Structures are given as structure tokens and as C-alpha cells.
């Protein structure tokens, strides 16, 4: 029995059952007393939903703590301060207190924790470390609070972050802290049975503030009892563990400030909302953010174990990917156009940023400097493993500045910086390949002339060229790749149309319809005379045989309009379509690009 009580998996499993029982009871109680969230314009849910779900998480965590966790001063401090934040959030849920009052409560909890010696040992100066820790606790608590904007998002992300922390505690042999985090994870998973899409209960501020505080303070416990590590690891690991809430909070805060909105007010402009605006379902958007959290958690584990240089490289690549994703998501419209125009006209700083954003060449050059460095370093690592203590490290450091200059020079003259990322095509990939090849050749020739290629490996430069080409192409095609990864709804609002012609013209027309939702067309099928194309799929749209029963197909798919995409359609087929549309009261339209001369008077 004692072995079971000391088993983190058993403690987590029991906490799941406790959370399910408590949350079920709280949901019924909330409906009886009228603690129900009604739909609002600045909120995401569309039906009345029970509140106070955080009570279930809190009760399950406390019960699990009393049953399984050895009582240490640190755990008592963390749970006591977290209980205080739970009651502050509960008061907010019941009486809707002001943001500064909640902040005051958070500061009291954070000061209570640091007052008992739990701090991030970053600078060696006790006073500075205390204030950094207070900022950390308050920031993460509010980040989780802001992240609670879609079914299952805050609880799921917190559970994933806690799992990453639990692994770190397990590796460091911190059994007591591991049991506390396991109980906490189990409580979150039990709550998710009721909070996943479509949610039947929300956690409310009592839940989001409680779990945010527990998570941020548990990280401090892990830092206090873990093995000695460098400042970079001390800072990087917790930030990566809590990457998703930090990214979302920073992203939303910056954009709201630029738009002249209050960062503390509710809204539908979070990362999750923008993913839904791109075409993902709510559940898919949440799962995608879960995936980001898992990647960040795995990266936090790797950073804690890898040498410093490799940790820098991994985090640098991660930051590049996140920057591209952030820029892409920032372009998703979540406000009315009139609001956007007003914000630009009233905010000179924002107008400046919008203007400068179209001139991305400086960013591209900085990005390429980073990619050149990482790819050159990666080639050495792939071929020689840990080479930092060998002669290859001196060769790498000596030649890196030369390679950066020569490759940027080659990129410039090859035309790498002339294109727009949004329209990257196969032709652009050849341009990138030319720039990479010319840059590699120039690098090899320069090293041959300067160092006679002594002690250098030819394989390094070949592998470096391959890695750099992949990195440059990937970064330039990032916007298109992200868009391709996000499935578009095939049957959204708008007139349901069938495209006649499943060739290049039809595929181009499909892309234009999808890029221009304001045209109010929803393409649902292709039609083609070629029987070999029957049942094929083009960008997720099925091709039907034009020689079959068109009336039946149009009726089954509820087609309202047929668009002809090419002039190559046979006259007999056009006549048949015209007769069908006349009988079925559908519109028949020709969609094509025309080039017409301009008459001069």
C-alpha cells in the first residue's frame, strides 16, 4: 500500500477520478444556483455553460495532496498560496472584481512564496531575483487566465506543461515535488472530461488563477531542488515548459496595444481564435496548440541535457519558426475593417509598423545570417558529433564570418531577396538553389585560397549546402506551407458551386475562390468530361463525371451555381449544362481571366 501511495502514476489516476466526481457535482450545483455563463459577443461559447469548474480542480488537487504528497515546507507554501489565488478568483467569478484588485491578490500570493525562499536563482543578487520571481509568478498566472478562451485549451496546455515539468522532476529525483505535480495533472485531466469541446462547464477565474499559480510555483520548486545548472538553462527550461501561454499572452498583448485596445479585456483575437478564422475547427485549433506545447516541452527536456551551443541552436530555430507563425497569424483579420482603419489613423506607431512590415528585407537578411550559421554548425555536428573540444571547432569559428559574407553576397546577386514569400513558386526554388550553390562554391574557393583546405572536410560543405537549401526554401515557403497544413472548410457559407473543368484552369479558379471569401462562393465539386478524372480529388474537392447523371449529382450536393473554368469545354457539354441549369433553376457562369486592349480616344 505504501508503494502505491508513493507511485506518481497511481496518485495521478486517483486524482483523475476525484476530479471527475468533484467536477460533476460542481456542474450540477452551478446550474441549480444560476452560475452559468451566457454567450456574449466578446466570448467564444455559443450556449449557456456552467461556471465554477475550478472548484472541482481545486478540491481534487487538495484531496490528492493530503492523500499522496509528503508534507514539506515548500509544498505547503505553494499549495497555501495557490489556495489564496483560488479564493481571489472565486470572488471574481461571483462578484466580478476589478483587474487591479485581482492583480493585488496575485502579488500577495507571489510575495508569500518568495518570502519563504522560493525564487529563480538567475542573477545572484537576492533582491533582483525576488522581483524577477514575482514577475514570473504573476505573469504566468495571468497568461493561463488569458489562455482560458476556448474549450479545453487552458486545462490541456497546463497539463502538458506540467507533464514536461514532471519528467524533469523525475530525472532529478525530486519525488515529493513529482507527486504534487502528478496529483495536479490528474486533476486537470479529470476536469477535461467535462471541459473538452463541446464543454459542459468552464473553470472560471477561480480555476485559471489557481492552475496558473500552481504551475508557476511548481517550476520554482523544481528549480530549488534540482541539480546545479547554468543561468541559461535555469531561464530557458521554465520558459519552454510554459511556452504556449507565454507566446499567446505576448502575442495578444502586443497586438491589442497596437490596435488601441485594453490588454486585460476579453476578446476573440487570441492565437486559438485566429486559427479558427483560418478554417480550423475549434477542436483542431486546440489540438494544434497542444502539439506546440508538446514540442516546447520536449525542447525544454533537450535543453536541460544538451551542451549550451546546441541548446542555443535549437532554441534559435524554434524562435524563427514561431516568428514566422506569429507574423502569419497577425495578418488574420479578427476586427472589422472600419476598426482597423480607425486604429491605423489614430495610432502613428501602428501605422509606422504597418508600413515597415512591407519592407521585410532586413528581417530576411538577419534570418539568413542565422540559417547560414546553424546549417554550417549542423553539418559539423552531423559528421563529427560533439566537435566543440576538437580542432574542427577552431576551423568552424575561423571560417564562419567568411561564409556568412560570401553566402549573403551570393544570395543578393542570385535574386533571393527579390521575391515575396506569399507567392513563392517552383521558379523561386531554382533561384534559391542557385544562390546556395554559388555561395557554397565561393566559400570553398575562398577557403582553398586562404587555408589551402588543410584539415577541412569536403563533406561538411556538401552537407551544409543541402541543409541551407532546405532551410531557405522552408523559410520562404513558410506562409504557403502553413496555409496548406490548415484545412479549409469546403462547405462554408456562400453559394454552393460546382466547377466545370478539372484541369489547370479549374484548379486556379478553386484557389481564387478560396482566397477571396468575400465573393461568397463555396466550391464543393468538380465536373469534367474526361472519364479518367472521375473520383479523383483536387485540393480536397472530388471530381464527378460530366457524362453521368448531372441532375442527380447537383441535387445531392445542393448545387446552386456552375462555373465554367475553361474555353476548351465542348459546345455539346455547354448546351447540356445550359439545359440542366434552366430546368433546375441554377445559374451558369463562365469564370475566366480576360486580356482586353484599352481603346485610346
Question: Please, could you describe this protein's structure?
Answer:
With 601 residues, this protein is mainly alpha-helical. Helix content is 67%, strand content 5%. The chain has 24 helices and eight strands. The strands form two sheets. Strands 5-6-4-3-7-8 form a six-stranded mixed sheet, with helices on both faces. It is flat, with a radius of gyration of 29 Å. The chain starts with a helix and ends in an 11-residue tail after the last strand. The model is unreliable at 341-346 and 348-358 (pLDDT under 50).
Topology:
Layout: H1 2-5, H2 8-33, E1 36-37, E2 49-50, H3 53-68, H4 73-95, H5 99-115, H6 126-147, H7 153-171, H8 175-195, H9 204-225, H10 231-241, H11 243-258, H12 271-277, H13 282-305, H14 308-330, H15 337-346, H16 348-357, H17 361-384, H18 391-414, H19 426-451, H20 458-476, H21 478-485, E3 495-500, H22 504-515, E4 521-528, E5 537-538, E6 541-545, H23 550-556, E7 561-564, H24 571-584, E8 587-590
Parallel strand pairs: 3-4, 3-7, 4-6, 7-8
Antiparallel strand pairs: 1-2, 5-6
Helix pairs in contact: 2-3, 2-8, 3-4, 3-8, 3-9, 4-5, 4-9, 5-6, 6-9, 6-11, 7-8, 7-9, 7-13, 10-13, 12-13, 13-14, 14-17, 15-16, 17-18, 17-20, 18-19, 19-20
- Overall SS class: mainly alpha
- Measured on Cα atoms, how large is the radius of gyration? 29 Å
pLDDT averaged over residues? 80
- Kindly report how far apart the N and C termini lie: 98 Å
Strand fraction: 5-15%
The count of DSSP E runs of length 2 or more, i.e. the number of strands, is 8
Compute the number of helices: 24
The main β sheet shows up as:
6 strands, mixed
Task: Report the helical percentage.
Answer: 55-70%
Identify the overall geometry: flat
Strand order of the largest sheet: 5-6-4-3-7-8
Q: Which spans have pLDDT < 50 for at least 5 consecutive residues?
A: 341-346, 348-358
Amino acid at each position: 500500500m505504501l508503494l502505491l501511495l508513493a507511485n506518481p502514476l497511481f496518485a495521478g489516476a486517483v486524482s483523475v477520478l476525484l476530479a471527475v466526481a468533484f467536477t460533476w457535482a460542481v456542474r450540477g450545483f452551478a446550474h441549480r444556483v444560476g452560475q452559468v455563463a451566457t454567450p456574449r459577443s466578446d466570448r467564444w461559447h455559443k450556449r449557456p455553460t456552467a461556471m465554477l469548474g475550478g472548484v472541482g480542480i481545486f478540491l481534487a488537487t487538495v484531496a490528492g495532496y493530503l492523500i499522496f504528497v509528503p508534507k514539506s515546507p515548500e509544498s505547503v507554501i505553494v499549495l497555501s498560496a495557490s489556495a489564496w489565488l483560488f479564493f481571489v478568483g472565486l470572488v471574481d467569478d461571483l462578484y466580478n472584481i476589478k483587474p487591479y484588485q485581482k492583480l493585488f491578490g496575485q502579488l500577495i500570493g507571489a510575495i508569500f512564496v518568495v518570502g519563504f525562499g522560493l525564487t529563480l536563482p538567475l542573477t545572484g543578487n537576492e533582491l533582483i531575483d525576488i522581483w524577477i520571481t514575482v514577475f514570473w509568478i504573476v505573469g504566468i498566472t495571468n497568461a493561463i487566465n488569458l489562455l482560458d478562451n476556448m474549450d479545453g485549451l487552458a486545462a490541456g496546455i497546463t497539463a502538458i506543461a506540467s507533464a514536461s515539468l514532471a519528467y524533469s522532476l523525475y530525472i532529478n529525483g525530486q519525488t515529493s515535488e513529482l507527486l504534487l505535480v502528478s496529483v495536479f495533472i490528474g486533476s486537470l485531466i479529470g476536469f477535461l472530461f467535462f471541459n473538452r469541446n463541446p464543454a459542459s462547464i468552464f473553470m472560471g477565474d477561480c480555476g485559471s488563477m489557481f492552475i496558473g499559480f500552481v504551475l508557476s510555483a511548481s517550476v520554482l520548486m523544481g528549480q530549488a531542488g534540482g541539480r546545479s545548472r547554468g543561468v541559461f538553462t535555469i531561464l530557458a527550461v521554465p520558459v519552454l515548459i510554459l511556452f504556449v501561454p507565454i507566446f499567446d499572452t505576448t502575442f495578444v498583448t502586443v497586438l491589442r496595444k497596437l490596435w488601441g485596445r485594453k490588454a486585460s479585456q476579453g476578446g476573440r483575437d487570441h492565437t486559438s481564435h485566429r486559427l479558427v478564422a483560418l478554417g480550423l475547427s475549434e477542436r483542431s485549433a486546440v489540438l494544434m496548440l497542444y502539439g506546440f506545447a508538446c514540442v516546447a516541452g520536449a525542447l525544454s527536456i533537450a535543453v536541460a541535457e544538451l551542451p549550451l551551443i546546441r541548446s542555443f541552436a535549437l532554441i534559435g530555430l524554434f524562435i524563427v519558426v514561431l516568428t514566422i507563425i506569429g507574423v502569419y497569424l497577425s495578418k488574420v483579420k479578427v476586427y472589422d475593417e472600419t476598426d482597423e482603419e480607425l486604429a491605423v489613423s489614430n495610432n502613428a506607431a501602428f501605422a509606422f509598423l504597418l508600413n515597415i512590415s512591407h519592407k521585410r528585407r532586413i528581417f530576411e537578411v538577419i534570418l539568413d545570417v542565422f540559417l547560414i550559421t546553424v546549417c554550417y554548425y549542423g553539418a559539423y555536428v552531423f559528421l563529427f558529433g560533439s566537435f566543440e573540444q576538437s580542432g574542427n571547432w577552431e576551423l568552424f569559428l575561423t571560417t564562419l564570418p567568411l561564409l556568412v559574407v560570401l553566402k549573403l553576397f551570393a544570395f543578393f546577386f542570385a535574386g533571393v531577396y527579390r521575391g515575396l514569400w506569399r507567392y513563392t513558386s517552383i521558379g523561386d526554388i531554382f533561384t534559391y538553389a542557385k544562390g546556395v550553390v554559388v555561395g557554397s562554391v565561393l566559400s570553398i574557393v575562398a577557403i582553398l585560397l586562404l587555408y589551402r583546405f588543410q584539415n577541412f572536410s569536403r563533406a561538411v560543405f556538401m552537407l551544409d549546402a543541402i541543409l541551407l537549401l532546405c532551410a531557405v526554401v522552408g523559410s520562404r515557403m513558410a506562409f504557403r506551407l502553413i496555409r496548406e497544413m490548415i484545412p479549409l472548410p469546403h462547405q462554408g457559407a456562400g453559394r454552393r458551386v460546382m466547377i466545370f473543368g478539372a484541369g489547370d484552369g479549374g484548379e486556379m479558379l478553386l484557389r481564387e475562390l478560396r482566397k477571396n471569401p468575400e465573393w461568397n462562393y463555396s466550391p464543393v465539386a468538380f465536373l469534367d468530361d474526361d472519364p479518367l478524372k472521375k473520383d479523383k480529388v483536387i485540393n480536397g474537392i472530388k471530381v464527378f463525371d460530366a457524362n453521368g447523371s448531372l441532375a442527380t449529382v447537383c441535387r445531392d450536393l445542393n448545387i446552386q451555381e456552375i462555373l465554367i473554368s475553361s474555353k476548351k469545354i465542348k459546345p455539346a457539354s455547354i448546351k447540356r449544362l445550359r439545359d440542366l441549369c434552366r430546368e433546375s433553376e441554377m445559374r451558369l457562369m463562365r469564370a475566366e481571366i480576360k486580356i482586353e486592349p484599352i481603346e485610346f480616344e
